[in-house]
Amino acid sequence: MSMDMQSRLRERRPAPAQDKGLSREKPTRGGLDSVMSYVPVEAVQRAFQVLRTLNELRFASVGELHHRTGISKSTIIRMLETMINDGYVVRDSFLGGYRLTSEVQALSCGYDGTPMLIEAARNATVDLAHQIKWPISIATPCDGLMVIKYTTNSISPWAFPFAVLHMRLHMTVSALGRCYLAFCSDEEREELIRKHHEQHFVDGAPYGLERLRRSVEQVRCSGYATPDALYHPKRLQFVAVPILLRGRAVAAMGTGYFRRAVPGDRVEKTIVEPMREAAARISVELERIYPDEAGVEARNP
User: 198 falls in which pLDDT band (50, 70, 90)?
Assistant: First the structure.
């Protein structure tokens, strides 16, 4: 986080009351917002139902889709012809039915695992933000930097007065980057360190490898990371803890606060311990979502 962007924090004013006339309560998965502004478009819901069913069956006739979904045959035909027009479905005359085309793979091309990480983290981070008041952010590595993929900045009582989402942070200097380096796999750590030694500079000079390795060991011993003191302002402090899946980091979770607002002897109890508890909750949820050994790949290629 750049020094000019860290000049101040502000207390966010309460958001204006929502017009309840446009809202409906509806439970959704993963603790996501359950208040909708408008009634769901049933035609879209039914189209997705047909698409999901066709994907499950691999190949199906109109009659089979009608039997599985309960949607009228005439409506199913119109939906299928629309999907054929857009290239997602094809009519197979030889087999006498419909099947999906390879074009449906384009629907998931922007998905890299991050949405599942956010789903696993959302409830715990919202609770944490309400508890410690400061904004919580989650970052994953991308192209040798840490990129913030999720933040509670919009709901935290004491929020940053600037855009946080998608912010790119230095791997070896920021608290989030140093935390990730300390708890990722040994192979990934060495690769990230090698890239930074060759490509990245701090204030015009390569970041010292020995100094970096010592800081990594310190973070591993303490269980949390702070920014490199040489490159961050004295008024602010940032803290990050790892989000682990089967013993290795898949992301880092951090917060920032005024040093004068949190006495040094209270940081571990009031900031770090609640963050560790939240990270443990997230890890449990990730284990539930990814029970296999492959785990989550929340990082961008």
Answer: low
Cβ atoms of residues 144 and 195 within 8 Å = yes
Q: Has residue 32 been placed in a domain?
A: no
Q: What would the DSSP string read from start to end of 38-90?
A: S---HHHHHHHHHHHHHHHHSEE-HHHHHHHH---HHHHHHHHHHHHHHTSEE
51 and 154, same structural domain? no
| pLDDT for residue 14 | 42
Beta-carbon contacts of residue 63 (< 8 Å; ≥ 6 apart): 73
Residue 101 and residue 248 share a domain: no
Beta strand extents in the chain (DSSP E only): 10-11, 24-25, 35-36, 59-60, 89-92, 97-100, 136-142, 145-151, 158-159, 168-170, 201-202, 205-206, 236-245, 248-258
Is the pLDDT at 27 greater than 90? The verdict is: no
- pTM (two decimals): 0.66
Angle at alpha carbon of residue 265, lines to 12 and 176, rounded to 5°: 60
Instruction: Say which amino acid occupies 295.
Output: G
Tokens of 24: 């409906």
280 and 161 within one domain: yes
pLDDT per position as a tens digit, 30-88? 444 555 678 889 999 999 999 999 999 888 999 999 999 999 999 999 999 999 999 99
One domain for residues 121 and 171: yes
List beta partners, residue 182.
none
Largest Cα–Cα distance of the chain, in whole Å?
A: 75
- Domain span at residue 244 reads 111-289
- C-alpha distances in Å from residue 63, one per residue of 59, 78, 94, 158, 200: 12, 14, 17, 57, 61
pLDDT band at 254 (very low <50, low <70, confident <90, very high): very high
Looking at the predicted structure, is the pLDDT value of residue 281 above 90? yes
